[in-house]
Design a protein that fits this description.
459 residues, alpha+beta, Nucleotidyltransferase, domain 5
């Protein structure tokens, strides 16, 4: 007991920081016992924040990290409750604990502690649940009622190939999941291979136009159709493609580009709309006017067509998706669409890390769990993010395998009335060697890009 000291004040001080109440009660040893674990926890939190909000957000989505966080939040809440009661007891003994003022103080502070830690615990559980779904162990996205291949059948939990070592190049396919009943293609609306060299920090992004056709399959045969029809064709011919539709598509993209693709990251487009709406929309600067009278991707009853003037705009979820998907306006193509897709992703990231989004974090976390799937190893996410953050946007090498450098556009009369792009493999081989060096299947000691085929980067 410590005469002349207030038990309610001691409890309040230990509510603010376990151990302060014990110090106030002239119990320094007990103060150290209660304060040191909290100080270590605070140091750990500061160290995590030092890496930036982007890095911390990704670490929080790693299931093991999120579950550990849940345990720490629970333990810290119990520790605060014990510290408050012990501080009041240190001042006035059992008699102090029976006083109405002390009991009322402990009751109020205890309720606040339970509510705060309950909310934090719920958020941590949401992170764990979302991370468990994002880092796929089972393909649990709801199947699309559209014809063709459904996402739930095609997202493997295992890597397609594993990099030989931690310093080996990592290649990831970024793609989209069309799960809306009004759409007829899944997993082929966006095809971007992102390649990261952990040793040098170099990043390359190569987009495959959906109209790419007459390309070579891994078995050496030529596929006559467009690349966005390959999964459906493989699904209908399982004896010819025993690996399944999505692995066939991934193997084909790697075969064309000349490097193995190790992992995928798939984004559900409907979930993307929800995430944009949750953050209150995104801001973009449209480089050229969009006038696409045929765009029909609206799922909220809007009229067919998408029109957007050049200049700055604030877009809601449906508009952001249209901005990323529209490609049939005058002057538009897969190249302009790929650039807009990157802009939208950066704009969404900027909104998510805004501190004003903290009250919506549980909803955003659940939306992310419904939106993203990947078989990328969770324990390497932070490493990849650190590399991405260290690279300036201007240093990221970006390419689209389109006309006229990497593909030709034969007349409609020669293409059965369809618009197709036939790959120029000499130029693609040269690009592969330029980007990947000895990691490219096309590389050899005597290899050099054919004259006149030096690739040109996206401006």
């Amino acid at each position: 007991m410590t005469p002349g000291r207030s038990a309610p004040l001691a409890a309040f001080l230990s509510f603010l920081w376990p151990g302060l109440g014990q110090w106030y009660a002239a119990r320094p040893r007990r103060a150290i016992v209660f304060a040191v674990p909290v100080a270590l926890l605070a140091g750990f939190v500061l160290a995590q924040l030092a890496g930036g909000l982007d890095s911390l957000a990704l670490r929080l989505l790693v299931p093991a990290f999120a579950f550990s966080l849940l345990l720490v939040i629970t333990a810290f809440g119990i520790w605060r409750l014990v510290a408050m009661g012990d501080a009041a007891y240190a001042v006035g003994g059992r008699a102090a604990l029976r006083r109405p003022s002390t009991l009322a103080t402990l009751a109020v502070l205890g309720l606040v502690t339970i509510l705060v830690h309950g909310y934090l615990g719920y958020t941590a559980w949401s992170l764990y649940d979302a991370g468990s779904r994002i880092f796929a162990t089972t393909p649990d996205i709801e199947p699309s009622p559209s014809p063709g291949v459904t996402p739930s059948e095609e997202l493997p939990a295992s890597p397609f190939e594993t990099p030989q070592s931690a310093s080996s190049r990592v290649n990831v396919l970024l793609t989209g999941i069309d799960s809306s009943p009004i759409r007829t293609h899944s997993l082929t609306d966006t095809l971007i291979v992102a390649s990261v060299d952990p040793t040098t920090g170099r990043i390359a992004m190569v987009s495959f136009p959906r109209d790419l056709a007459r390309f070579e399959l891994p078995d050496g045969t030529i596929y006559p159709g467009k690349i966005n029809s390959l999964m459906t064709y493989a699904s209908a011919h399982p004896s010819q493609f025993p690996d399944g539709p999505f692995p066939t598509l991934v193997a084909t993209l790697g075969h064309i580009l000349g490097v193995p693709i190790h992992y995928y990251a798939a984004v559900n487009l409907d979930g993307f709309v929800k995430m944009v709406d949750l953050v209150g929309g995104v801001d973009v600067v449209n480089q050229q006017a969009i006038n696409d009278p045929t765009y029909g991707g609206w799922t909220d009853g809007r009229r067919v067509g998408f029109h957007l003037s050049a200049g700055p705009h604030h877009l809601d979820g449906q508009e952001a998706l249209a901005y990323a998907r529209s490609r049939k306006g005058i002057g538009d193509n897969d190249f302009t669409r790929a650039r807009r897709q990157q802009e939208i992703l950066l704009a969404l990231r900027k909104r998510i890390v805004d501190p004003a989004m903290l009250p919506k974090m549980p909803e955003l976390i659940q939306a992310a769990g419904d939106t993203i799937r990947t078989n990328f190893p969770a324990d390497r996410i932070s490493e990849m993010l650190d590399i991405a953050q260290a690279a300036d946007d201007a240093d990221v090498e970006r390419y689209v395998l389109g006309p006229t450098r990497f593909a030709t556009n034969p007349p409609l009369s020669e293409a059965g009335g369809q618009y197709i792009l036939v790959p120029k493999m000499d130029a693609i081989r040269a690009l592969s060697i330029q980007l990947f060096g000895a990691d490219s299947d096309y590389y050899s000691a005597a290899a050099s890009p054919p004259a006149g085929s030096q690739p040109t980067a996206i401006p």
